[in-house]
Write a structure and sequence with these properties.
Helix content is about 35%, strand content about 20%. With about 475 residues, the chain is α/β, with parallel strands linked by helices. The protein folds into 2 domains: about 140 residues, Rossmann fold (3-Layer(aba) Sandwich); about 270 residues, Dihydrodipicolinate Reductase, domain 2 (2-Layer Sandwich), CATH 3.30.360.10. The protein has a 9-stranded mixed sheet with strand order 14-13-12-11-7-10-9-8-15, with helices on both faces. A 6-stranded parallel sheet has the order 3-2-1-4-5-6. The longest helix is centred in the middle third of the chain and has 19 residues. About 40% of the residues are buried. The structure holds 6-O-phosphono-beta-D-glucopyranose (BG6). 6-O-phosphono-beta-D-glucopyranose binds next to loops.
Protein backbone atom coordinates (compact mmCIF):
# COMPACT_ATOMS: atom_id res chain seq x y z
CA UNK A 1 0.00 0.00 0.00
CA UNK A 2 1.46 3.39 -0.96
CA UNK A 3 1.18 6.14 1.58
CA UNK A 4 -0.29 9.41 0.37
CA UNK A 5 1.80 12.41 1.39
CA UNK A 6 0.31 15.74 0.46
CA UNK A 7 2.81 18.59 0.82
CA UNK A 8 1.72 21.43 3.07
CA UNK A 9 1.86 25.15 2.24
CA UNK A 10 5.10 27.06 2.84
CA UNK A 11 5.50 28.09 6.49
CA UNK A 12 7.64 29.56 9.21
CA UNK A 13 7.37 27.60 12.44
CA UNK A 14 8.85 29.36 15.45
CA UNK A 15 9.55 27.07 18.40
CA UNK A 16 9.73 28.92 21.71
CA UNK A 17 11.67 26.76 24.13
CA UNK A 18 13.64 25.35 21.20
CA UNK A 19 16.49 24.09 23.37
CA UNK A 20 14.14 22.16 25.68
CA UNK A 21 13.36 18.50 26.00
CA UNK A 22 10.15 18.43 23.93
CA UNK A 23 11.80 20.22 21.01
CA UNK A 24 14.72 17.80 21.04
CA UNK A 25 12.72 14.62 21.60
CA UNK A 26 9.61 15.22 19.56
CA UNK A 27 9.29 18.45 17.59
CA UNK A 28 12.60 18.51 15.68
CA UNK A 29 12.72 14.74 15.00
CA UNK A 30 9.06 14.86 13.92
CA UNK A 31 9.69 17.71 11.51
CA UNK A 32 12.71 15.91 10.12
CA UNK A 33 10.61 12.81 9.42
CA UNK A 34 8.03 14.95 7.60
CA UNK A 35 10.89 16.47 5.59
CA UNK A 36 12.05 12.98 4.74
CA UNK A 37 8.53 12.01 3.67
CA UNK A 38 8.56 14.93 1.24
CA UNK A 39 5.82 16.85 3.01
CA UNK A 40 7.72 20.10 3.62
CA UNK A 41 7.92 22.53 0.68
CA UNK A 42 11.25 24.23 -0.11
CA UNK A 43 10.43 27.37 1.78
CA UNK A 44 9.31 25.74 5.00
CA UNK A 45 11.50 27.12 7.76
CA UNK A 46 11.91 26.37 11.42
CA UNK A 47 13.14 29.10 13.73
CA UNK A 48 14.28 28.13 17.20
CA UNK A 49 13.76 30.74 19.88
CA UNK A 50 14.98 30.49 23.44
CA UNK A 51 16.82 32.44 26.09
CA UNK A 52 20.30 30.94 25.45
CA UNK A 53 22.67 32.98 23.29
CA UNK A 54 23.38 30.88 20.22
CA UNK A 55 23.71 31.38 16.47
CA UNK A 56 22.11 29.41 13.65
CA UNK A 57 25.08 27.05 13.51
CA UNK A 58 24.78 26.34 17.23
CA UNK A 59 21.10 25.49 16.88
CA UNK A 60 21.73 23.26 13.88
CA UNK A 61 24.29 21.46 15.97
CA UNK A 62 21.78 20.96 18.74
CA UNK A 63 19.20 19.75 16.24
CA UNK A 64 21.68 17.33 14.67
CA UNK A 65 22.36 15.79 18.07
CA UNK A 66 18.61 15.49 18.67
CA UNK A 67 18.17 13.69 15.33
CA UNK A 68 21.04 11.35 16.12
CA UNK A 69 19.45 10.51 19.43
CA UNK A 70 15.77 10.38 18.57
CA UNK A 71 15.48 9.38 14.90
CA UNK A 72 15.88 5.72 13.97
CA UNK A 73 19.18 4.97 12.27
CA UNK A 74 17.59 3.73 9.05
CA UNK A 75 15.84 7.09 8.70
CA UNK A 76 19.01 9.15 9.05
CA UNK A 77 20.04 9.96 5.51
CA UNK A 78 22.97 12.39 5.40
CA UNK A 79 21.77 14.43 2.41
CA UNK A 80 18.32 14.77 3.96
CA UNK A 81 19.73 15.71 7.33
CA UNK A 82 21.82 18.44 5.67
CA UNK A 83 18.83 19.75 3.73
CA UNK A 84 16.69 19.69 6.87
CA UNK A 85 19.28 21.52 8.96
CA UNK A 86 19.49 24.20 6.27
CA UNK A 87 15.87 25.04 7.08
CA UNK A 88 16.76 25.92 10.67
CA UNK A 89 17.56 29.32 12.14
CA UNK A 90 17.82 30.61 15.68
CA UNK A 91 16.97 33.81 17.51
CA UNK A 92 17.88 34.40 21.16
CA UNK A 93 14.83 35.90 22.75
CA UNK A 94 13.77 37.22 26.10
CA UNK A 95 10.15 36.14 26.53
CA UNK A 96 9.48 38.65 29.28
CA UNK A 97 11.60 41.52 27.92
CA UNK A 98 12.31 43.25 24.64
CA UNK A 99 15.49 41.46 23.52
CA UNK A 100 15.33 39.55 20.25
CA UNK A 101 11.81 40.39 19.05
CA UNK A 102 12.92 42.83 16.34
CA UNK A 103 15.39 40.22 15.05
CA UNK A 104 12.70 37.56 15.02
CA UNK A 105 10.45 39.85 13.00
CA UNK A 106 13.22 40.47 10.46
CA UNK A 107 13.92 36.79 10.05
CA UNK A 108 10.35 35.77 9.27
CA UNK A 109 9.49 35.16 5.60
CA UNK A 110 6.74 37.27 4.07
CA UNK A 111 3.55 35.65 2.77
CA UNK A 112 3.89 32.23 4.34
CA UNK A 113 1.88 30.57 7.10
CA UNK A 114 3.17 31.56 10.52
CA UNK A 115 2.92 29.13 13.40
CA UNK A 116 4.30 29.62 16.91
CA UNK A 117 4.88 26.63 19.14
CA UNK A 118 4.85 27.56 22.84
CA UNK A 119 7.01 24.78 24.22
CA UNK A 120 7.58 26.76 27.41
CA UNK A 121 6.14 27.03 30.93
CA UNK A 122 2.49 28.18 30.85
CA UNK A 123 3.49 31.19 32.94
CA UNK A 124 5.16 32.57 29.79
CA UNK A 125 2.19 32.09 27.44
CA UNK A 126 0.80 35.56 28.11
CA UNK A 127 4.13 37.36 27.65
CA UNK A 128 4.92 35.61 24.40
CA UNK A 129 1.42 36.03 22.97
CA UNK A 130 1.44 39.71 23.80
CA UNK A 131 4.85 40.40 22.27
CA UNK A 132 4.09 38.45 19.11
CA UNK A 133 1.13 40.74 18.49
CA UNK A 134 2.74 43.94 19.74
CA UNK A 135 5.67 43.55 17.35
CA UNK A 136 3.41 42.65 14.46
CA UNK A 137 5.00 39.21 14.14
CA UNK A 138 1.71 37.34 14.49
CA UNK A 139 -1.37 38.34 12.55
CA UNK A 140 -4.95 37.14 12.18
CA UNK A 141 -3.85 34.14 10.08
CA UNK A 142 -1.12 33.00 12.46
CA UNK A 143 -1.47 29.93 14.66
CA UNK A 144 -0.21 29.23 18.13
CA UNK A 145 0.38 25.78 19.57
CA UNK A 146 0.28 25.16 23.31
CA UNK A 147 1.20 22.06 25.23
CA UNK A 148 -0.22 20.30 28.20
CA UNK A 149 -0.46 20.80 31.12
CA UNK A 150 -3.12 23.32 30.21
CA UNK A 151 -3.68 24.56 33.75
CA UNK A 152 -3.72 22.50 36.92
CA UNK A 153 -7.39 23.10 37.72
CA UNK A 154 -10.40 24.89 36.31
CA UNK A 155 -9.36 28.31 37.59
CA UNK A 156 -5.85 28.19 36.08
CA UNK A 157 -7.15 26.76 32.79
CA UNK A 158 -9.69 29.57 32.58
CA UNK A 159 -6.98 32.13 33.29
CA UNK A 160 -4.80 30.66 30.49
CA UNK A 161 -7.71 30.64 28.06
CA UNK A 162 -8.42 34.25 28.94
CA UNK A 163 -4.82 35.37 28.38
CA UNK A 164 -4.61 33.61 25.02
CA UNK A 165 -8.02 34.96 23.98
CA UNK A 166 -6.80 38.51 24.57
CA UNK A 167 -4.44 38.12 21.63
CA UNK A 168 -5.72 35.25 19.49
CA UNK A 169 -9.07 33.94 18.28
CA UNK A 170 -10.05 30.40 19.27
CA UNK A 171 -9.59 29.35 15.63
CA UNK A 172 -5.89 30.27 15.96
CA UNK A 173 -5.23 28.30 19.15
CA UNK A 174 -4.06 24.67 18.89
CA UNK A 175 -4.05 22.94 22.30
CA UNK A 176 -2.12 19.70 21.97
CA UNK A 177 -3.15 16.42 23.52
CA UNK A 178 -0.67 14.13 21.83
CA UNK A 179 -2.99 11.12 22.27
CA UNK A 180 -5.22 12.59 19.59
CA UNK A 181 -2.28 12.53 17.19
CA UNK A 182 -1.79 8.78 17.58
CA UNK A 183 -2.90 6.89 14.48
CA UNK A 184 -4.71 4.28 16.48
CA UNK A 185 -6.60 6.85 18.50
CA UNK A 186 -7.88 8.39 15.29
CA UNK A 187 -8.70 4.90 14.21
CA UNK A 188 -11.29 4.74 16.98
CA UNK A 189 -13.33 7.20 14.98
CA UNK A 190 -12.77 5.30 11.74
CA UNK A 191 -13.80 2.01 13.35
CA UNK A 192 -16.93 3.51 14.86
CA UNK A 193 -18.11 5.75 12.07
CA UNK A 194 -16.89 4.09 8.87
CA UNK A 195 -18.42 0.68 9.63
CA UNK A 196 -22.09 -0.18 9.99
CA UNK A 197 -21.18 -3.19 12.08
CA UNK A 198 -20.51 -1.65 15.46
CA UNK A 199 -22.69 1.43 15.76
CA UNK A 200 -26.07 -0.36 16.18
CA UNK A 201 -24.59 -2.25 19.16
CA UNK A 202 -22.75 0.74 20.59
CA UNK A 203 -24.99 1.52 23.55
CA UNK A 204 -26.10 0.42 26.99
CA UNK A 205 -28.54 -2.10 25.56
CA UNK A 206 -25.71 -4.22 24.15
CA UNK A 207 -22.56 -3.12 25.95
CA UNK A 208 -22.03 -4.34 29.50
CA UNK A 209 -19.04 -2.13 30.29
CA UNK A 210 -15.98 -0.48 28.80
CA UNK A 211 -12.42 -0.67 30.15
CA UNK A 212 -9.83 1.92 29.19
CA UNK A 213 -6.29 1.10 30.22
CA UNK A 214 -3.08 3.06 29.79
CA UNK A 215 -0.41 1.04 31.57
CA UNK A 216 3.21 2.09 31.55
CA UNK A 217 6.34 0.28 32.67
CA UNK A 218 8.31 3.48 33.14
CA UNK A 219 8.35 5.43 36.40
CA UNK A 220 8.53 9.19 36.70
CA UNK A 221 11.92 9.18 34.91
CA UNK A 222 13.58 12.34 36.15
CA UNK A 223 10.31 14.30 36.01
CA UNK A 224 9.64 13.71 39.70
CA UNK A 225 9.19 17.32 40.71
CA UNK A 226 6.66 18.03 37.93
CA UNK A 227 4.87 14.72 38.41
CA UNK A 228 4.64 14.99 42.16
CA UNK A 229 2.55 18.13 41.78
CA UNK A 230 0.32 16.43 39.20
CA UNK A 231 -0.24 12.76 39.84
CA UNK A 232 -1.96 10.38 37.46
CA UNK A 233 -5.27 12.25 37.51
CA UNK A 234 -3.86 15.51 36.26
CA UNK A 235 -1.14 13.94 34.13
CA UNK A 236 -3.23 11.31 32.32
CA UNK A 237 -6.92 11.23 33.24
CA UNK A 238 -7.94 14.86 32.75
CA UNK A 239 -6.51 14.84 29.23
CA UNK A 240 -5.44 11.63 27.48
CA UNK A 241 -7.89 9.21 29.11
CA UNK A 242 -10.69 11.75 28.90
CA UNK A 243 -10.09 12.03 25.15
CA UNK A 244 -10.21 8.26 24.73
CA UNK A 245 -13.43 8.11 26.72
CA UNK A 246 -14.93 10.84 24.56
CA UNK A 247 -14.06 9.09 21.30
CA UNK A 248 -15.68 5.88 22.53
CA UNK A 249 -18.75 7.50 24.06
CA UNK A 250 -19.58 10.37 21.72
CA UNK A 251 -22.48 10.56 19.30
CA UNK A 252 -21.63 10.50 15.58
CA UNK A 253 -20.67 14.04 14.56
CA UNK A 254 -22.50 15.26 11.45
CA UNK A 255 -19.15 15.58 9.67
CA UNK A 256 -15.47 15.00 10.41
CA UNK A 257 -15.05 18.67 11.01
CA UNK A 258 -13.26 20.38 13.92
CA UNK A 259 -16.23 21.90 15.67
CA UNK A 260 -18.62 19.06 14.88
CA UNK A 261 -16.23 16.56 16.49
CA UNK A 262 -15.38 18.79 19.42
CA UNK A 263 -19.04 19.63 20.10
CA UNK A 264 -19.78 15.92 20.48
CA UNK A 265 -16.80 15.34 22.77
CA UNK A 266 -17.83 18.27 24.92
CA UNK A 267 -21.32 16.77 25.38
CA UNK A 268 -19.75 13.58 26.74
CA UNK A 269 -17.59 15.45 29.24
CA UNK A 270 -20.58 17.45 30.41
CA UNK A 271 -22.58 14.25 30.87
CA UNK A 272 -20.03 12.68 33.24
CA UNK A 273 -21.38 12.14 36.75
CA UNK A 274 -19.24 13.17 39.72
CA UNK A 275 -17.05 10.32 40.97
CA UNK A 276 -17.46 9.48 44.66
CA UNK A 277 -14.58 8.16 46.83
CA UNK A 278 -16.00 4.62 46.59
CA UNK A 279 -15.46 4.67 42.82
CA UNK A 280 -11.81 5.63 42.77
CA UNK A 281 -8.61 3.89 43.81
CA UNK A 282 -5.25 5.58 44.05
CA UNK A 283 -1.94 3.74 44.15
CA UNK A 284 1.72 4.57 44.49
CA UNK A 285 4.49 2.23 43.36
CA UNK A 286 6.84 0.86 45.94
CA UNK A 287 10.15 -0.80 45.20
CA UNK A 288 12.45 -3.00 47.20
CA UNK A 289 14.85 -1.56 49.77
CA UNK A 290 13.28 1.87 49.95
CA UNK A 291 13.24 2.37 46.17
CA UNK A 292 9.99 3.36 44.53
CA UNK A 293 7.90 6.44 43.94
CA UNK A 294 8.85 8.20 47.18
CA UNK A 295 12.49 8.02 46.19
CA UNK A 296 11.90 8.89 42.52
CA UNK A 297 9.84 11.93 43.44
CA UNK A 298 12.36 12.94 46.13
CA UNK A 299 9.41 13.52 48.41
CA UNK A 300 9.32 10.93 51.22
CA UNK A 301 5.95 12.23 52.42
CA UNK A 302 4.30 12.30 48.98
CA UNK A 303 0.59 11.39 48.73
CA UNK A 304 0.65 11.76 44.94
CA UNK A 305 -0.82 8.83 43.01
CA UNK A 306 1.21 7.11 40.31
CA UNK A 307 -1.80 4.89 39.59
CA UNK A 308 -5.49 5.58 39.49
CA UNK A 309 -8.54 3.49 38.66
CA UNK A 310 -12.01 4.96 38.42
CA UNK A 311 -15.52 3.91 37.63
CA UNK A 312 -17.13 6.56 35.47
CA UNK A 313 -20.76 6.97 34.44
CA UNK A 314 -21.87 8.86 31.36
CA UNK A 315 -25.36 10.09 32.18
CA UNK A 316 -27.16 10.15 28.85
CA UNK A 317 -29.57 7.94 26.90
CA UNK A 318 -26.90 5.99 25.12
CA UNK A 319 -24.86 5.01 28.16
CA UNK A 320 -27.28 4.87 31.07
CA UNK A 321 -26.22 1.82 33.10
CA UNK A 322 -22.98 1.04 31.23
CA UNK A 323 -19.98 1.95 33.38
CA UNK A 324 -16.61 2.98 31.97
CA UNK A 325 -13.68 1.74 34.06
CA UNK A 326 -10.50 3.74 33.57
CA UNK A 327 -7.06 2.86 34.89
CA UNK A 328 -3.60 4.20 34.31
CA UNK A 329 -0.37 3.82 36.16
CA UNK A 330 3.39 3.85 36.08
CA UNK A 331 5.82 0.99 36.81
CA UNK A 332 3.23 -1.64 35.99
CA UNK A 333 3.81 -5.15 34.69
CA UNK A 334 3.47 -4.24 31.03
CA UNK A 335 3.09 -1.36 28.61
CA UNK A 336 -0.36 -1.50 27.12
CA UNK A 337 -2.87 1.10 26.06
CA UNK A 338 -6.13 -0.46 25.06
CA UNK A 339 -9.85 -0.14 25.07
CA UNK A 340 -11.93 -3.21 25.79
CA UNK A 341 -15.63 -3.24 25.08
CA UNK A 342 -17.47 -6.11 26.71
CA UNK A 343 -20.85 -6.93 25.24
CA UNK A 344 -23.84 -8.35 27.08
CA UNK A 345 -25.17 -11.89 27.00
CA UNK A 346 -27.49 -12.84 24.17
CA UNK A 347 -31.08 -12.44 25.41
CA UNK A 348 -31.68 -16.19 25.30
CA UNK A 349 -29.37 -19.10 24.79
CA UNK A 350 -30.49 -22.04 22.68
CA UNK A 351 -27.42 -24.03 23.77
CA UNK A 352 -27.06 -26.01 26.96
CA UNK A 353 -23.34 -25.34 27.24
CA UNK A 354 -23.52 -22.35 29.60
CA UNK A 355 -20.06 -23.24 30.88
CA UNK A 356 -18.27 -22.70 27.61
CA UNK A 357 -20.02 -19.43 26.90
CA UNK A 358 -18.12 -16.09 27.22
CA UNK A 359 -19.16 -12.54 26.43
CA UNK A 360 -18.15 -11.05 23.10
CA UNK A 361 -15.39 -8.56 23.61
CA UNK A 362 -13.85 -6.05 21.24
CA UNK A 363 -10.35 -4.97 22.22
CA UNK A 364 -8.75 -2.08 20.41
CA UNK A 365 -5.02 -2.01 21.06
CA UNK A 366 -3.65 1.52 20.86
CA UNK A 367 -0.04 0.62 21.63
CA UNK A 368 2.06 -1.44 21.31
CA UNK A 369 1.09 -3.99 18.62
CA UNK A 370 -1.69 -1.73 17.36
CA UNK A 371 -4.70 -3.66 16.23
CA UNK A 372 -8.10 -5.10 17.03
CA UNK A 373 -9.31 -8.30 18.53
CA UNK A 374 -12.93 -9.39 18.47
CA UNK A 375 -13.74 -12.41 20.59
CA UNK A 376 -16.51 -14.51 19.14
CA UNK A 377 -18.13 -17.79 20.08
CA UNK A 378 -17.92 -20.83 17.80
CA UNK A 379 -18.58 -24.51 18.13
CA UNK A 380 -15.82 -26.48 19.75
CA UNK A 381 -14.65 -28.98 17.14
CA UNK A 382 -15.30 -32.65 17.76
CA UNK A 383 -18.10 -35.09 18.18
CA UNK A 384 -18.87 -34.15 21.81
CA UNK A 385 -22.18 -32.45 21.03
CA UNK A 386 -22.79 -28.73 20.74
CA UNK A 387 -20.06 -27.39 22.96
CA UNK A 388 -18.97 -23.77 22.68
CA UNK A 389 -15.62 -22.08 22.68
CA UNK A 390 -14.37 -18.55 22.25
CA UNK A 391 -11.85 -17.61 19.56
CA UNK A 392 -10.26 -14.29 18.62
CA UNK A 393 -10.65 -12.54 15.30
CA UNK A 394 -7.35 -10.81 15.65
CA UNK A 395 -5.88 -8.18 13.41
CA UNK A 396 -2.62 -6.36 13.78
CA UNK A 397 -2.49 -3.13 11.79
CA UNK A 398 1.15 -3.82 10.93
CA UNK A 399 0.19 -7.10 9.28
CA UNK A 400 -2.94 -5.78 7.62
CA UNK A 401 -1.35 -2.63 6.26
CA UNK A 402 2.17 -3.83 5.48
CA UNK A 403 4.90 -1.17 5.65
CA UNK A 404 2.41 1.56 6.32
CA UNK A 405 1.23 -0.19 9.44
CA UNK A 406 4.74 -0.44 10.87
CA UNK A 407 5.79 3.02 9.81
CA UNK A 408 3.08 5.14 11.35
CA UNK A 409 3.89 8.82 11.89
CA UNK A 410 4.52 9.88 15.44
CA UNK A 411 1.69 11.85 17.07
CA UNK A 412 3.64 15.11 16.98
CA UNK A 413 4.39 14.84 13.26
CA UNK A 414 0.75 14.49 12.45
CA UNK A 415 -0.32 17.28 14.79
CA UNK A 416 2.25 19.82 13.61
CA UNK A 417 1.24 19.21 10.00
CA UNK A 418 -2.40 19.73 11.01
CA UNK A 419 -1.43 23.10 12.51
CA UNK A 420 0.10 24.13 9.19
CA UNK A 421 -2.96 22.83 7.34
CA UNK A 422 -5.17 24.81 9.71
CA UNK A 423 -7.11 21.76 10.84
CA UNK A 424 -8.17 21.85 14.51
CA UNK A 425 -10.07 18.55 14.62
CA UNK A 426 -7.41 16.82 16.71
CA UNK A 427 -6.85 19.71 19.11
CA UNK A 428 -8.76 20.54 22.26
CA UNK A 429 -11.03 23.50 22.26
CA UNK A 430 -10.97 25.89 25.24
CA UNK A 431 -14.43 24.91 26.49
CA UNK A 432 -13.51 21.22 26.26
CA UNK A 433 -10.44 21.68 28.47
CA UNK A 434 -12.45 23.68 30.97
CA UNK A 435 -15.22 21.08 31.10
CA UNK A 436 -12.62 18.36 31.71
CA UNK A 437 -11.20 20.32 34.64
CA UNK A 438 -14.67 21.05 35.99
CA UNK A 439 -15.20 17.29 36.28
CA UNK A 440 -11.69 16.56 37.61
CA UNK A 441 -11.45 19.35 40.19
CA UNK A 442 -13.90 17.88 42.75
CA UNK A 443 -12.12 14.50 42.53
CA UNK A 444 -8.79 16.16 43.31
CA UNK A 445 -10.22 18.47 45.98
CA UNK A 446 -11.97 15.63 47.80
CA UNK A 447 -8.69 13.72 47.95
CA UNK A 448 -6.72 16.70 49.15
CA UNK A 449 -9.19 17.20 51.98
CA UNK A 450 -8.48 13.68 53.27
CA UNK A 451 -5.44 12.32 55.00
CA UNK A 452 -4.97 8.74 53.79
CA UNK A 453 -2.16 7.70 51.51
CA UNK A 454 -2.47 6.03 48.11
CA UNK A 455 -2.35 2.24 48.34
CA UNK A 456 1.14 0.88 47.73
CA UNK A 457 1.64 -1.51 44.81
CA UNK A 458 4.75 -3.39 43.83
CA UNK A 459 6.75 -2.22 40.85
CA UNK A 460 6.07 -4.61 38.02
CA UNK A 461 2.65 -5.63 39.36
CA UNK A 462 -0.73 -4.86 37.82
CA UNK A 463 -1.58 -2.17 40.37
CA UNK A 464 -3.09 -1.96 43.86
CA UNK A 465 -5.38 -4.66 45.25
CA UNK A 466 -8.27 -2.26 45.72
CA UNK A 467 -8.39 -1.64 42.00
CA UNK A 468 -9.30 -5.31 41.54
CA UNK A 469 -12.09 -4.87 44.06
CA UNK A 470 -13.46 -1.91 42.14
CA UNK A 471 -14.39 -4.36 39.40
CA UNK A 472 -15.01 -7.48 41.49
CA UNK A 473 -17.74 -5.87 43.53
CA UNK A 474 -19.62 -5.28 40.24
CA UNK A 475 -19.04 -8.90 39.21
CA UNK A 476 -16.48 -7.90 36.56
CA UNK A 477 -12.74 -8.12 36.17
CA UNK A 478 -9.97 -6.18 34.54
CA UNK A 479 -8.23 -7.57 31.56
CA UNK A 480 -4.80 -8.80 32.44
CA UNK A 481 -1.89 -6.43 31.89
CA UNK A 482 0.87 -8.43 30.21
C1 LIG B 1 2.46 12.35 28.89
C2 LIG B 1 2.56 12.21 30.39
O1 LIG B 1 1.53 13.34 28.55
O2 LIG B 1 2.06 11.11 28.33
C3 LIG B 1 3.53 11.13 30.74
O3 LIG B 1 2.96 13.44 30.95
C4 LIG B 1 3.18 9.82 30.06
O4 LIG B 1 3.59 10.93 32.16
C5 LIG B 1 2.98 10.05 28.58
O5 LIG B 1 4.23 8.90 30.27
C6 LIG B 1 2.46 8.81 27.89
O6 LIG B 1 2.51 9.00 26.51
P1 LIG B 1 2.74 7.80 25.50
O7 LIG B 1 2.65 8.43 24.15
O8 LIG B 1 4.07 7.23 25.83
O9 LIG B 1 1.63 6.83 25.77
Amino acid sequence: MVSRVIPVEPFDLVIFGATGDLARRKILPGLYRRHLAGQLPDNARIIGAARSEMDDAGFRDLALKALEEFVAKNKRVQSDIDAFLARLAYVAIDATGEGGWATLKERMQPDVIRAFYFSVAPSLFGDIAERLCLHGIAGPDSRIVVEKPFGRDLATAKALNKILATHFAESQIYRIDHYLGKETVQNLMAVRFANILFEPLWNAQYIDHVQITVAETVGVEGRGSYYDKSGAIRDMVQNHMMQLLCLIAMEPPYHFDPDAVRDEKLKVIRALLPVGPEDIVRGQYAGRKGEGYLKDSENPASRTESYVALKVQVANWRWQGTPFYLRTGKKLRGRASEIAITFKEPPHSIFDDAEGWRENQLVIRLQPDEGMNLKVMIKEPGPGGMRLTQVPLDMSFAEALGDEGTDMPDAYERLIMDVIRGNQTLFMRGDEVEAAWAWTDPIINAWEARTERPQAYDEGSSGPEDALMLMHRDGRRWREIR
